[in-house]
Amino acid sequence: MQLERKQDLSIYYWLKDLFSAAPFITIKDGFPDVALSIPTVAVESDSIYTKPFELGNRARLKYREFYIDVFAADKSQRDEYAYKIINELEDNIPVYNYDEGFPESVTPTQIGALEVDSITMRVVRILPELTEKMYYRSVVQFSAVYNEH
Prior knowledge:
By secondary structure, the protein is α+β, with helices and mostly antiparallel strands. It has a single domain, classed as Phage tail protein-like (STM4215-like), CATH 3.30.2000.10. It has two helices and six strands, in the order H-E-E-E-H-E-E-E. The chain has helices at residues 3-18, 75-88, and strands at 26-29, 40-52, 60-72, 93-96, 110-124, 136-148. It has a six-stranded mixed beta sheet with strand order 1-2-3-6-5-4.
């Protein structure tokens, strides 16, 4: 499994753990593509870009962008979930070796961490005439650099 996929899965399981006290929240790996159940938190990776790291060699830092969409029943729920995410992003996100298996049956070894560089939260306004079911949405966007142990 590619390292980038291990990073994607680590964020997904990080979110599942973050909201484990609220089992009614659906956590999705990727943007919801079927009927949306409210509340849902979905993570999607976006761009990858590199920057030179050391002069004189080809070492580069690889930055990754991620979007976490929060779909909620009302403004209060939307804000509570988004604020929880941005506050928890202040710490690094551990990255695990999912070649060993997946949680619940296996506890994979931590191989590094995503160090969060920047965090942005924005509200996405949904016009009632565009959807049958009104919901509230926000997007938490962040960039991170992977650091091995």
